[in-house]
Amino acid sequence: MSFQHPEYQYLNLLKDILNHGSDKPLFFTPEVLAEYKKKGEEPPFIRSVFGQMMKFDLSKSFPLLTTKKIFTRGIIHELLWFLSGSSNIKYLVDNDVHIWDEWAWKRYHKLALAGAHPDLTQDEFIARLKAEPTDSEFVKNWGDLITVYGRMWRRWPASDGREIDQLGWVIEGLKNKPYRKSYVVSAWNPDFIYQMASKGNANEVPPFCHTTFQFAVVNNKLRCGMFQRSGDLFLGVPFNIASYSLLTLMVAQVTGIEPGEFIHFFGDVHIYSNHFDAVKEQLSRDPKPWPNISINPKIKNIDDFKFEDFKLENYNPHPAIKAPIANIGGF
Fold this sequence. Notes:
By secondary structure, this protein is α+β, with helices and mostly antiparallel strands. Helix content is about 35%, strand content about 20%. α3 (about 70-85) packs across α11.
């Protein structure tokens, strides 16, 4: 049997959606539609399929795409931020990772337009977040996204006022009773989701895309399965693959279980129409050998990891491919 590079799972899904996907409209706020009209551009749509899966063997290599360069530093810092349980982007801003900047600024900007406070550009807003101390009122009020992954993973708000550490419970369970089937972490909190829906979610944090993940021990190896209800295949999914693979390696280390597979399940997985040309460029490239990632073996507690504990080895990808982020809202 001939070997096929595991990256072809991703590339073949790109190709399948591009050639056979179903086109769907997107929801845009009136303000965003006005921006497209002003520029003389048509707003993008998505081309999607429903119900797909990819598998990656973490015992052999680290699944970081090579057909374009991936922002690995951002993946590691974002995952550490999730694991901290924080919902405030101050940590990311301080470490020059700007994945979530827009969502914090939008909330500030929306209230500024209503006269609540002086307006700032997004760059001015982020510069102020970076300059002010973590305990300042500005950072506490405007850097906090509230309904994000880290809070749900580590501080799920229970109805009786408690905060539930889902991931901590899972890790302790894996250490003591590894073969149970209940090691699930969910970010899909209906209370927050329905609040977003009632507000139209025009300028708030988007509803969670990767909603649930589960750990299982199979043949003495740790597997992680993650369900993603909505996947931006060109921009977002490469991040998600690497992030959950790294999380699996970290949980394997702190539980003393050998790492196995990361299994990625999709609901709606799609390509934005303004990414079509970038996708075609990526599909013209051949994958290169995947890298490895080494993790400081001294770390035995999930809360003790720091950025310096990770070292990416032998990563020689094709150049990055730039593509616009669609400015959308809603569900």
